Amino acid sequence: INLILEQYYDLITNNDSPDRNSSYGINKIIESPKILIYGDINMNILDGSTVWLTNLVNMLLCEAFNEPEIHLLSKTDVQNEINLNNISKINKIIIHQPSTLHNNVKNSSFKSYDSQKAIKYLDDKFNFDSIVIRGQNIMRDFSPKDTILRKVIAYSIHNLEDMKDTVLNCQYLACQTQILKDFYLDNGIPKSKIFILPPLINSTKDEPSFKRSGFNLIYTGTLKNDYNSIQIIKCFDKLYEYNKDFHLFLVISKIYRKPQGFTNEIEELINKHKLGDHGVSIYTSLPKSEVAKMIQNADVGISWRKPSICLLYTSDAADDMQC
User: For a disulfide at 108, which of 38, 77, 148, 255, Cβ 3.0-4.6 Å?
Assistant: First the structure.
C-alpha cells in the first residue's frame, strides 16, 4: 500500500517525469496563482462529479501548493452545504453563482451558453491565470477564436468532433487516463498540451483492511443505464433469494433519466424496495462524511459499468470491463 501511495504521489506531483513540463501532474494547475474552476455540475447533489470538484479544490489548497486564490463558479445556486462542507478551507474560496452574478444571468441555473458568458465576465473582472473547465457541452460553445481559451484547462473531453480547433487553442487538455491521452495524441493534439490528472482522493489515517465480517454490499452514486443500476439490483434480488443474510445499501445521489425505459424500470425497483423488506436499504442526499462511514462499514463495494460508456476502450479491454 505504501509503495502504491508513493507512486501515486509521484504521479500527481510530476516527480516521475524527467521533464517537469511533460505530460503528468497537477503542477500545471498549481503554477497559477489565481484560478477559476467550473465543473458544469449541480452543487446541491453529492455525486462523483462534485466529489471530483471538492477534492480538486482541497488538493489545490494544500499548504505545499502555496494556496492559490481559487474562485468556484457553480452551475446552480447553492441551496445546501452538502458539498461545501467537504472543502476543508471553504473560507478561502470565492464562490460565484447564477442569481447573484450579473444582470445577464437571471435564472438559478446556467445553461451552457450562460456558463460561457459568466466565465468571460468573471475573467474580465478578476483576470485569472488559469480556468479549469469540466464539461463537453460548454466547451462546444466556445469559438476557436476566443482569446480566453489561452487560459483554459479543459478536463476530460471524450469527443473531439467539431471542437478540435477549440481544444487546440486551449492552454492544456487534462485527462484521467493514459487511454484518453493516447486518444488525444492519435487525433493530433500536441503532447505539450496534454497532462494526466488522476482522480483525487483525501488521504486517511486508517489502516486499510480487506477482511469481510458479513454480507453487506454497497453502491454509492448515480443510478444510470450505463452503470448497470438495474442489473445490480436484480442480481442482488437473486442473492437475497439464496441467502437472507445478504444486504444491499443503495446511497443514491441522483437518477439519470435516460432512456425512458430505464427510468420506468429503475423507479419501479426503487419503489418495490422502499415499500417492502427485501434486504435493500435506500438512502438519498447524505453528506460525504456519512457516505464514507457507510462504505467503511460495508463488506463489498459495487462498481459495474457497461463498456459502451467509453468508446476509447479496445475490444479486449471492453470485454474485460464487461466481465
Answer: 77
pLDDT in tens, 208-263: 667 777 899 999 989 999 999 999 999 999 999 999 999 999 999 889 899 999 99
What's at 116, amino acid-wise? Answer: Q
Is 27 exposed, middle or buried (CB count within 10 Å of its CB: 0-12, 13-18, 19+)?
middle
Concatenating the DSSP letter of every residue in 3-56 gives HHHHHHHHHHHTTT-SSTTSSB-THHHHT-SEEEEE--S-TTS-SHHHHHHHHH
Which residues lie below 8 Å from residue 36, measured CB to CB, with a gap of 6+? 71, 72, 73, 119, 122, 123, 126, 128, 130, 131, 132
Q: Which position has the higher pLDDT, 308 or 314?
A: 308
> What beta strand segments (E) does 169-299 contain?
172-175, 194-196, 216-223, 247-255, 280-284
Backbone phi, psi, residue 82, to 5°: -60, -30
Closest CA to 80 of 293, 285, 289: 285
Collapsing DSSP to helix, strand or coil, 137 comes out as helix
Are 48 and 222 in contact, with CB atoms under 8 Å apart? yes
User: What does the chain come to in residues?
Assistant: 323
Kindly report the backbone phi and psi dihedral angles of residue 195, in degrees, each rounded to the nearest multiple of 5, phi listed first. Answer: -145, 155
Task: Tally helices (H) and strands (E) across the chain.
Answer: 12, 11
Q: Is the peptide bond before 307 cis (omega within 30 degrees of 0)?
A: no
Which amino acid makes up residue 57?
Answer: V
In 3D space, the residue among 54, 120, 129, 42 whose CA is nearest the CA of residue 90 turns out to be 54
Helices (H), 243-312: 260-275, 288-297
Contact assessment for residue 263 and residue 255, using Cβ atoms and an 8 Å cutoff: yes
Cα torsion through 54, 57, 62, 66, rounded to 10: -170
What's the mean per-residue pLDDT of the chain? 81
pLDDT, greater one: 309 or 177: 177
How far apart CA 131 and CA 154 sit, in angstroms, is: 8
E strands, 100-243, where?
Answer: 130-134, 152-155, 172-175, 194-196, 216-223
